[in-house]
Design a protein that fits this description.
The protein is mostly helical. It contains five helices and two strands. The protein is globular, with a radius of gyration of 29 Å.
Length: about 180
């Protein structure tokens, strides 16, 4: 015969199990172990939120300059597979930096507003596609229907595209000059 007694002793015991038909066995669970489990769960949730936040920050930083980033990654893999070893990291970073530098130089040297707009859009359209894909992946993690997943992905693509456009848009070199229109 088995009987279960639960006690509420605030020192160390929250549950006591006594088997009367066998050798008396006592099982103790301490209150501090219960609090440790709650602390670990909260620590895990906080770490998860911080980790997702850092991943989103890195995503927004890299997606606004997705063309130089992809150029650097492609050159990195090319250099690594050709046997450059650890130097391929440096070569990839230099290639991405060169593409971004050329973009900025051409953007600042051009005086035509439509050429500037076309150049910025050439960099923003891949960012919009990457934003759509990432937002669709995040939306698929939830229990949303397929329609709502695509709606959230379009909203995410719009936000990423606007952030990329705002980040890549050149500031006016002179007083009264804006991106698309200059006062002469």
């Amino acid at each position: 015969m088995q009987k279960l007694f639960a006690t509420a002793n605030f020192r160390a015991v929250t549950k006591v199990t006594i088997f009367l038909d066998k050798v008396p066995t006592v099982t103790y669970y301490s209150i501090s172990a219960c609090f440790l489990e709650v602390e670990m769960i909260m620590l895990g949730l906080i770490s998860w939120v911080i980790g997702i936040g850092l991943l989103c920050w890195v995503f927004f930083t890299l997606v606004s300059v997705v063309v130089p980033t992809m150029a650097g990654v492609i050159v990195f893999f090319w250099a690594y597979r050709s046997g450059a070893g650890l130097a391929s990291v440096f070569v990839g970073i230099m290639a991405g930096t060169l593409v971004l530098w050329l973009f900025r130089k051409v953007l600042m040297a051009s005086r035509q507003p439509f050429l500037r707009l076309a150049l910025v859009l050439a960099f923003c359209i891949p960012a919009v596609i990457a934003g759509y894909s990432a937002a669709l992946g995040f939306a698929a993690l939830g229990n949303a229907s397929s329609l709502w997943q695509h709606v959230l992905a379009v909203i995410g693509a719009g936000i990423v595209g606007a952030a990329s456009f705002a980040r890549l848009m050149p500031s006016g070199q002179h007083e009264g000059e804006t991106f698309l229109y200059s006062h002469e």
